[in-house]
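Fold this sequence, please.
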Amino acid sequence: MKTAQIFLMGIFLVFISCGKKQEEKVEIPVKKVEKPVEVVKEEIIEQPLIFTVQIGAFEYGNNKIAAAKDVVTYKENNLFVYRFGSFFFVFRG
């Protein structure tokens, strides 16, 4: 009797599941909107590169080198750096 009940229940479930109508799928057309691409122009600023010749770098200042003509003294990383000359180079890409 249990087997008959299980069999009838299975048939009942099959009829119920087959009796439902499937919902129709409605396709909604999608409009593709293309956004214009902004073109950004970069201004290239030509800045000259300045080359110098380093004469020396010392922990303590050197008055003899500093007194020489056209020598420039810089303080970098706790060192006195002595440079000579200014050579300009302009790069144009």
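The two ends are 94 Å apart (CA to CA). DSSP finds two helices and three strands in the chain.
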